[in-house]
Amino acid sequence: MKYYNLRKVYELIDLDTAYITKMIRVFLKEVPEDLHRLNTMIANQNYELARLSLFKLKPNLELFGVPATQQLTQIEAWVEHKNIAIENEIDHLNLVIKKACTGLRKDFKQH
What are the two backbone dihedrals, phi and then psi, of residue 21, each rounded to the nearest 5 degrees? Predict the structure, then answer.
């Protein structure tokens, strides 16, 4: 199973492989950083900064077809209501993003 789908990227870029490679590099650099920031904000129960991290992370995951919609929705609810258990969702989100990044690195020979 692939943990990413580049259909939207290809539609957006129109098969410009150099630009797609650049987008993948940016994704591989920024998404793990954004995820780390989100994990820190959740651990510190900093709801406002967690919301900002989600705001940046979510469109990138959607563009790259990373299957994490349910987890992002639950984490957004946690930010809003502040009393929802999200340990399973954040663990799953971390796993899915790790697998997506690993797959992208392997498939596109990125380091």
Answer: -60, -40
Q: How far apart are CA 24 and CA 76, in angstroms?
A: 25
Alpha helices in the chain (DSSP H): 7-13, 17-43, 47-63, 69-81, 87-107
Encoding tokens for residue 109? 């020979």
Q: Which residues contact 11 (CB under 8 A, 6 or more apart)?
A: none
Write the single-letter amino acid at 36.
H
The Cα–Cα gap between 111 and 101 comes to: 10
pTM score: 0.91
Give the residue from 33, 35, 26, 25 showing the smallest Cα distance to 68. Answer: 35
**What distance in Å separates the CA atoms of residue 34 and residue 96, rounded to the nearest whole number?**
14
Give tens-digit pLDDT for 25-65. Answer: 999 999 999 999 999 999 999 999 999 999 999 999 999 99
Report yes or no: 100 and 3 within 8 Å, Cβ to Cβ.
Answer: yes
